[in-house]
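User: My collaborator sent over this chain with a note saying "see what the structure looks like." That's all I know about it. Can you take a look?
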Amino acid sequence: MSLSIGIVGLPNVGKSTLFNAILGKQVADASNYPFCTIDPNVGVVEVPDVKLPVLANIVKTEKIVPAAVQFVDIAGLVKGASQGEGLGNKFLTNIRDCDAICHVIRAFSDPNIIKEGSVNPQGDFEVICAELIIKDLETIDKYLDSSKNNPKEKTSKKFLLAQLLKTELEKGVLAININLDDDQKALLREFFLLTAKPYFLVANVDEDTYTNIRNWKLNISHFDKVVPVCAKIEFELSELPPADQKKYLQELGMEHSGLERVIQKAYETLGLQSYYTAGVKEARAWTIHQGDRAPQAAGVIHTDFERGFIMADIVSYEDFVAYHGWLGAKTAGKLRQEGKDYIMKPDDIVEFKFNV
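Assistant: Without extra context I'll predict from the sequence alone. Here is the result:
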């Protein structure tokens, strides 16, 4: 499964610094002026996973293949982007190509770094959302205008949904936050709205705040969607060897790096989970949606696996470790054979059986 996260925000909020930290190397220009990033920088990051080395050791393989996430550093947006201000049109097109949006908001104070567009983190977020809403209203208005003289279309569920979307968007409600039934959610996808994309926020805090993060609280709506990160510290951390990274995190009183917490929030936002395959060839993590059944999970490996699915041999991660692999788990009665209706659980270890 390909997972793409667009990193967006106003100019100079720390998007490119965060992107560089996530990738662990200098890729994006992080200069102190607006529109430093013009074309989006794209990088693929391995998902940190402590379980894979354990599985690899049990099955005696040296090859480990983690799940991966693609991050896209998108040009800074300014007020008026929906009308083409700044790099608005390019910005909005790049967002449309991503699975989810990571809003980076400025929660640090540095008079030496130019501040564009707003005076506080809530304002950062609202400026971005307003531009996305304006663009989506253009999409909805275009559809309504083209359908108004079509009697059949005017009575359709899609037309009624468009009217509802227009009303709510004009109130400032993002499409993804509108209460819709399953049929309406399916129709919503036909509009390809920017505000229908799942999102979360990264608050780029200063170093002093980061070292006291347990007591930190940001006065912003959707606080439950916020991941506090110090992009500057994360970049410094990314340049250290793994052992020194762990020591540095301990000194900061942090258990997980910002990268790990950002990816965890991305998985949570998109409703994703991992399962594993483990054998002498490799130990590998695969990304699926929560609620996927066994054939769908098999299809992530190869479409033939889903079409020819017969059954799946499954052991939980805990049992796989406790009984030292497939044979031990089977002997202990911990191996289960599941059919087409089985709903995958997080951290299942799986072998699929299928017809070619």
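A starting point for your reply to your collaborator: The two ends are 21 Å apart (CA to CA).
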